[in-house]
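Record DUF3137 domain-containing protein, 313 aa.
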Amino acid sequence: MTATDQDFNSYYVSEIEPALARANRRRTIRMRIVVGLAALGTIGFCAIAALALVGMTNHPGALAAFALGFGGLLGAGVLYQGLTNEYKRVLTGGVCSYLGFDYKLGGFDFPLARFHPLLPRFTGAKLEDRIRGRVGDVDFELCEGKLSRKDAKWRTIMLAYSFSKPFKGETCVVADTDWIGNAIERLRQAGERVRLESSQFEERFEVFSTDQLEARYLLTPRFMEQILELTQRFNNKRGVALAFHESQLLIAIRIGSMARRFEIGNVFGEVRDGKERAYKILTELNLVTDIVSVLGLAGSRPAEAIQGKGVAG
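=>
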């Protein structure tokens, strides 16, 4: 067992495990209420179906049955979601506290508008799991977004890192898709198309910038190699995009329609595998340090250290 494992185990036993035990005790009572409300909701909709079979949809009892059905299922869903959120605060929030990160499940501000040049067109966005912190000498902010439009839904991890190189313009690096997709990007991106020397990078990405010289200053041959390595690390050749914006490096990583990060699983039963779930979240947070390490953002300080703590692999 490594020293990091020992540190995290000690923290889990002293901080997370007692909070998890309290949540488990509350879960028993709340799940009984969830089941009761769901049962009432089912009875209500069954009553509506029975009235419909005998042609009594206008019966005064139909409205009461609908209210019972809708209210019961809605209440069960709200209560279950609240229970899930409590477990997330215990497990995801607990792991973030161990790492020295600030975690918020909801009710936070996040600069989504800054990421618009990196994201496909969307009409709806639900943001969750905002995490802030510091890796070596690099400040970061992370958020998971559930984005949607009429024909599609997908999840994207959005990260903002402080960037040591000074710059004044805006430079965006987006996936090279097909002639239609690239034509759309040319219309919606600020600045002009930038041609770079790396043919491998040009095959994967389209680069746009308000300052051609600055774009080449930022996208050095080594940094382009590191971006290509990042796409390989996440096995995502078309779903990684970057932007240099207002002293920050912005990164968007599309993770698909169903995949979710920093989740704690279902809570229909007591969470007895809390340590396993906590370690899974700890491993997922390697995303933050992997990017710092792969892109060499941390300068002279070790990218593997998070506030003096390593992340267990």
